[in-house]
Structures
1.
Amino acid sequence: MTAPELVLTPSEMKQADREAIASGIPGIELMRRAGRAVADAAEKIASSGGRIVVAAGPGLNGGDGFIAAALLAERGYRVSLGLLGSLDHLTGDTLEAARDWRGETPPAEEISFHDADLIVDALFGTGLARDLEGAARLVVERMNASGKPILAVDLPSGIDGSTGEVRGLAVKATHTVTFAARKPCHLLMPGRAFSGTVEVADIGISREILAAKGGSLFANHPPLWLHALPKPGLMSHKYERGHTLVASGGATRTGAARLAARAALRVGSGLVTVASPPEALGVNAAHLTAIMLRGCDGPEGLHAILQDTRFNSLVLGPALGIHSGTRAMVAVAVQARRSLVLDADALTSFEGMASEFRGAFRGAPAVLTPHDGEFSRLFKDHPDILDPASKIEKTRRAAAYTGAVVLLKGADTVIAAPDGRTAINENGTPYLATAGSGDTLCGLIAGLMAQGVPAFEAACAGVWIHAEAGASFGPGLIAEDLAELVPGVLRNLLK
Ligand SMILES: NC(=O)C1=CN([C@@H]2O[C@H](COP(=O)(O)OP(=O)(O)OC[C@H]3O[C@@H](n4cnc5c(N)ncnc54)[C@H](OP(=O)(O)O)[C@@H]3O)[C@@H](O)[C@H]2O)[C@@H](O)CC1
Ligand SMILES: Nc1ncnc2c1ncn2[C@@H]1O[C@H](COP(=O)(O)OP(=O)(O)O)[C@@H](O)[C@H]1O
Ligand SMILES: [K+]
């Protein structure tokens, strides 16, 4: 079985580099391997004998650029290289790499990109320390204006390796070659969009070293959670596949619950029931078939329903209303110790009250699924959670604080467990930004938890399945389509 893909932060990568060096691979050898991987990638883009312009920076990223430039010249390309800063200031492995290069080293701000078949961006990698200014900014502006293919070394210069944010200005690469493992910026927006096609080159740093220095951050793909997905056995009966309960809003706000309920059923929850306020029973009944319906009058009603212990997974929030009644329903659910997905109004009803969640979920697994707005409202009195520039850090802190799995939605959804395990999702499509799409996601996660999938794996699998379903449909997608696309996604996953 394929291992989950490890993603390393720049500081973890630096430690892994050091460990590899300590274990016997000299730094210059790592750099030569990195440079060779860049040259190999360049060869796939630029036709033989073409013109390649390398912009090299003052650090190790620039060193990779020198190695690649020398190799490409040997291989018959017409290569020129511009250096940011002075040759006299190069040190260590970068200085040694620069000795391989036999050509001129004019200032990077003076080289021309207009007749290049390919530009190699080796200005800055994981060592970017501040916003681009002056000469660096000028070079990046001219690269981007050239309209030529750009191959970024490790990551596009100007992108922050850990957050994916643009530091003032960044190279808009068409291709990136990174080393040993992807970094957060290759998956997080906007860095992902600036990276183009990303290739990971093996430079001989073992998975053991990568896992020892990283090991808690992953790309969200099936190898991370496929082992946890249930397959019904020949003798299974529906109660073994769990019973999901979804709370409905009032008479004019019932659709969200039904979307979640349908998704829970499609993802394999053996039974699904919508818990409806009395005044909305008629409208819910008119739209439900395989899904069951129960009257539920507020927190007391929910308490009564949950006396039946077969309801093992709950969705609370979509269209429930922002008020104390919703808070009371959450309290009932928490006390009942069932697997819980809290979304939308169940989060906003706790605006500025995140402390109410602290330690609340010890009795049963919980997943919170905020989008950015809901996240900011819930944690508005917690600058330590809201302020980090990194979406990974924010989500991790929220999970550690609440003790729940936190899933911060968006084009680059991040899922974090209280124990630190974190995944970044990347198979989505902007067509998922449609009304009711988040409700469907809640249902998928609750439906998986109903079948015994642990919270982190259920959240990761739910996000991936949701995104895969959306991407398989494309233009014209509406939330009602999503649950119907789930069987096709599952069929491919479980075959
Ligand atoms: N370690 C290894 O074994 C391996 C590492 N590898 C490679 O190393 C790369 C990381 O190298 P790195 O740590 O030297 O950082 P890097 O990205 O070159 O930048 C630092 C330089 O840029 C400068 N600088 C920063 N920001 C700036 C700004 N805004 N504007 C202007 N200047 C700025 C900064 O100057 P300072 O801040 O000191 O003034 C410093 O001189 C990594 O991405 C990968 O490609 C591979 O070879 C595989 C083996
Ligand atoms: N540009 C995008 N690319 C990929 N997925 C997206 C994008 N925009 C939104 N999504 C996904 O669509 C869903 C929207 O959920 P949410 O904001 O709760 O919407 P709603 O409240 O309308 O259901 C989330 O799963 C989110 O990650
Ligand atoms: K770069």
2.
Amino acid sequence: MLQIEQLNQYYGQSHTLWDLDLQVPEGTCTCLMGRNGVGKTTLLQCVMGLLPIRSGEIRFAGNNLNKQIAERRAPLGIGYVPQGRQTFPMLTVEENLRIGLPARKDKAKQIPPFIFELFPVLKEMLGRKGGDLSGGQQQQLVIGRALVLDPKLLILDEPTEGIQPNIVQEIGDIILRLNREIGLTVLLVEQKLPFARKVADRFCILDRGRHVAAGEMGQLDDELIRQYLTV
Ligand SMILES: Nc1ncnc2c1ncn2[C@@H]1O[C@H](COP(=O)(O)OP(=O)(O)OP(=O)(O)O)[C@@H](O)[C@H]1O
């Protein structure tokens, strides 16, 4: 579903992603892993068109994303949950959720009810400002907002960072449900190994801007963990 080939990215003179290949097959939940600063967020931002790439190709569901500006990528069917719970703090929960509606193919005018089935707390707080929600509720709002688009691929950048354990568990259950029951393809950046093992069926590891390992989650062994993940 998502194919990245020979991607090179620079911040000014600093070569950050090197000849990077990555495959996210349809229906999988793939976890992008690696130590701090190896380029995980940079890669996701390249996929979303938020950063320019120097060379390489990003293809999604038959579309060459290199030719699409950032604003066109979400309507193609990519939902994005950036790092750091980026709600629109001055807008209400309802307004935050409605933002995705115009990008839907079916031009639906209502927030899909399954969003509130997944996140009942959002229904209770529809009139509350995004910035007044707790951290966990904000993360649920941002995931809900990405789902309003009716994406085929959901990209999440460290969705559990700084979130209390019971909400982490809830978010894990929801990602599992979206992937296994609804068939949404998921690409997830996650540092917490137990969480990654619970929700993802595949892993890809980056090290200093290069893709160094990938496979089924069951193949993520102690040697790979020691070499590329432990600090
Ligand atoms: N705006 C920027 N300008 C210059 N360098 C940057 C910028 N953003 C990130 N970098 C550098 O690019 C490299 C990759 O950063 P990135 O945030 O993509 O890593 P990451 O794997 O997502 O890290 P983390 O797990 O800490 O979020 C790092 O060396 C970082 O310092």
